Amino acid sequence: MKTYQVNENGYYGEFGGAYVPEILHQCVEDLQKTYLEVLESESFKQEYDQLLRDYVGRPSPLYLAKRLSEKYGCKIYLKREDLNHTGAHKINNTIGQILLARRMGKTRIIAETGAGQHGVATATVCALMNMECIVYMGKTDVERQHANVQKMEMLGATVIPVTSGNMTLKDATNEAIRDWCCHPSDTYYIIGSTVGPHPYPDMVARLQSVISEEIKKQLQEKEGRDYPDYLIACVGGGSNAAGTIYHYLDEERVKIVLAEAGGKGIYSGMSAATIQLGKKGIIHGARTLVMQSEDGQIEEPYSISAGLDYPGIGPIHANLSVTHRAQILAVDDDEALDAAYELTKLEGIIPALESAHALGTLSKVDFKPEDIVVLTVSGRGDKDMDTYITNKR
Length: 393
Ligand SMILES: Cc1ncc(COP(=O)(O)O)c(C=O)c1O
Known about the structure:
By secondary structure, this protein is α/β, with parallel strands linked by helices. The protein has helices at 22-39, 42-56, 66-72, 90-103, 117-129, 139-144, 146-154, 169-182, 200-208, 210-223, 239-245, 274-277, 315-322, 333-347, 353-359, 385-390, and strands at 11-12, 15-16, 62-64, 75-80, 108-113, 132-138, 158-162, 187-189, 230-234, 255-263, 279-283, 286-290, 326-332, 372-377.
């Protein structure tokens, strides 16, 4: 049977793999050998499930958004990852990875962050587990997501502003990888999305798959069937989307719509629509679609949303795109802002700017009245208030 899951060599079709410098080879190989055994062990599952329930507050609600449904002429459920502790889906992954890091005897944690949600989620679990935490964050993002920088610092993390490139997520990731190369033996790198060398994309997808596991149960209870007609999520690196679709990947009757950041328009030269603009290449250890120039130099992405401002994409999503399993839609800055204000007005929910891109696809899809749509609200909008206020609708 054709599957969209990772194969035993760490590839999704022609995408994925582990392209790392010699010095990290051992670290990545250790991780490849260890992650499945740990993630599937009873003791890990017990500790992970208990923390997700009692600390994160899972299961997150599946909320029938009546006024939004009326507006778009179908039945729209929102998967409320914004209600998790720390305000986004990122914590599902950091809890899992810090438990793995401890079992591997690592003492020092590093992470990259764009919107700051993964940084906050990492700083949070480091406080919880009493571990040293260093977060790399582009200087542009330090400025536009300042509330999250303050949280990370209060949680005891050291936030290092990165001033290379256009000072966003790609540059923070470069710096985190550089740090890892200097401290391969004691340091564990908690990657925040389904990117990086194998096994990270698969590991992060598995840790986020609790989202679709819950959707299945919740839809069965509410609708008497465990699958929707559509699943919709935004993609930066792709972790909330991977979690949303994980248990439906091979169920072709479920249509998948992924929203990437159109920025000021796909062909404006200021965009982060990686899947549509990208060509095959290698970034941060994986073969995937990459925004790059004719001679293979990575192009600087742009999005109003710090979490989607990345020139690569998870290999799982690159494969879903080239095989046409998923429909990829670009939502630009203005459309995302409109969608955020619309959700706030209709449902009293202020979404993260990243999630607003998922909401921005609703006007682009031709739904039938009987369609059941599940859209993941990956995070809450607290961190984006400055942007919302300066771009009033
Ligand atoms: C709320 C929120 N949603 C989505 C994303 C995008 O990441 P991913 O594609 O890994 O879900 C981010 C990244 O920072 C985020 O903070």
